[in-house]
Write a structure and sequence with these properties.
The protein is of the alpha+beta class. The chain is about 30% helix and about 20% strand. Bound molecules: flavin-adenine dinucleotide. The site of flavin-adenine dinucleotide (FAD) has 40 residues, from α1, α2, β6, α8 and α14.
Length: about 475
Amino acid sequence: MSEKPIWGEDYDLVVVGSGFAGLAAAIEAKQAGASVIVLEKMRIPGGNSAISGGLLAVAGSPLQQREGIEDSPELLFKDMMVAGMDLNHPVLARLVAEKSPEILEWTQTFLGVEYSDNLNYLGGHSVARTYATANGTGSGIIKPMLAKCRELEIPVQMKTLLCSLLKDDSGRVEGVEVRRDYLFPNRDSGQLQRIRARRGVVLACGGFSRDVAFRMTQDPRLNEKIDSTNQLGATAEALVLALQAGATPIHLSWIQMGPWASSDEKGWGVGSMFTLLAGFPYGIMVDAKTGKRFVNEGADRRLRTDAMLITDRIPVAIVDSEGVKNATTLESCLKRGVVKAFGSIEELANFNHIPLVPLQETLERYHLSLAHGRDAEFGKPLAADLKPIEHPPFYSIRLLPKVHHCMGGIQINAQAQVIDIADHQPIPGLYAAGEITGGVHGASRLGSTAIVDCLIFGRIAGQNAAADI
Ligand SMILES: Cc1cc2nc3c(=O)[nH]c(=O)nc-3n(C[C@H](O)[C@H](O)[C@H](O)COP(=O)(O)OP(=O)(O)OC[C@H]3O[C@@H](n4cnc5c(N)ncnc54)[C@H](O)[C@@H]3O)c2cc1C
C-alpha cells in the first residue's frame, strides 16, 4: 500500500484556474453546499478570461428578437461544425449552442453583467448574434464573478501552482500538490503543500498558446518568433499532469491563430478588437503589395489566417467612418498608432505603400457587390447595414496573425468528467472545463463561442463535482 499523504488543507472541491471556467465551477459548487477553494498560479486572477474581448455568442437572444434576426441553437451548432470541419464532438458542441441563451440570462440576472445594446457580426457566423460586454473586455464578466466569490466566501488563492494530481489506491483523484507563494515563471519557487479534495478536482487551467515548446511539439511552425494574444501564464503544465493521470488528449495540434491582430503592437493589444468589430465586418482586407482583396473577410479564422500567411502577403484592413461605430478601441488604437486615420484613399494608399489604382478598382468592385447584395468574388456575407467605403476619415490597420486559441485539450463528457484514455470511462474525482478541454470546437473555434463554452462547462463541472460523493 502506498503511503497516505499528509494534507495541509481539506475542501470538498479544489478548482484550479481563476478564469471563466474555474470561477463558474466554484460558484456553482458553493451554491450546492460544497466547500471550495480556487487556486491560481499568477499574481492576479482571471487568466485569458479577464483580458478577453468579452464577446458572447447567443443563439435566439432578446437583441436578435428586437432586430428581427432569425436564429436558433441549431444554426449556431451548424456554424460551429462548419468552422470545426466536423471534428467537433457533437454532443459537447450542441450543448454550447443550446445553453447559450441560458448563459446570457445567468450572467445578466445572477452576476449583474452589463452588455452593450448592439449585436456584432463575427466571421463564420451565419447571422449577427454576438453580445459585447459594456466595458469592452472579459473583465466585465470576471469582476462580477470575483465579487460573487467574495460574497459566497470562496477563497481565491493566488500564486499557487498545481504541481501534481494525487490519486488514492483505487485510482480516484483525492487531492493536489501545489507550490504556495509561487512566483511565475520560477518553477522552484514557493513551498510544496497538499490539499485534499473530498469530492473532486476541477481543472480549469486554460490553453497553452504561450507555451512555445509544447505548442511546437504539436505544430512545429509555431516557433518563438510567432507572437500570441494570450496572457503569459497560458502554458501546458496542468494539461500534461492531466495526461499523466490518464486523460485522453483530443485535437492538440489544432491551434488557432487570430487573423485580426496587428503587427504594430505586441499580443492582443487594442487593434484586435478594432479589426474584429470594424475592419473585417464593415471594411475590406487587401494585400498591400497588390491592392487586391484575397479572402472573404467574414470567413472563419482558419481560412482567413491561411490566406494571410501566404508568403510575402502584407495584409491591411481598410474601413471608413461609417464602419467604426462599434469599434470600442478606436481611440486607443489611434493614440497608440496601431490604427491610422486619413482624409482620403490616396493618403491611405501612400502611407501603406499600396498601389493606388488597383486599390481604387478593388473598392469599386466591392461597392458593386454591395449594390448587388452579393460578394461574387469571395462570398463575404453582406449585412444589411453595410455601406460603401467612401466616407472620410478612412482608417487602416496592418495585420499579422498571432497564436490565439487551443481547440485541443483533454476529453470530457457532457458531465464535465475527464475521460480515461485506457477504458474511455470517467477518471473518478477529476473534472475539467474551458480551454484545457478539447472537442467542442473541432478544427477551428468560431469567435465569441469560447466564453459560453467555458461558462457552461464550468457550471456543469461545479454542479456535478459538488454532488460527487
Ligand atoms: C486576448 C483574448 C481575447 C479573447 N476574446 C474572446 C471573446 O471575446 N469571446 C470569446 O468567446 N472568447 C475569447 N477569447 C477566448 C477565451 O477568452 C478563452 O478561451 C477563455 O477565457 C478561457 O477561459 P478558461 O477559464 O478556460 O481559462 P483562463 O481564463 O485562461 O484561466 C485559466 C487560469 O488557470 C491558470 N493556470 C494555468 N495553469 C495553472 C497551474 N498549473 N496552476 C495554477 N493555475 C494555473 C492560468 O494562469 C489562468 O489564470 C479570447 C482570448 C484571448 C487570449
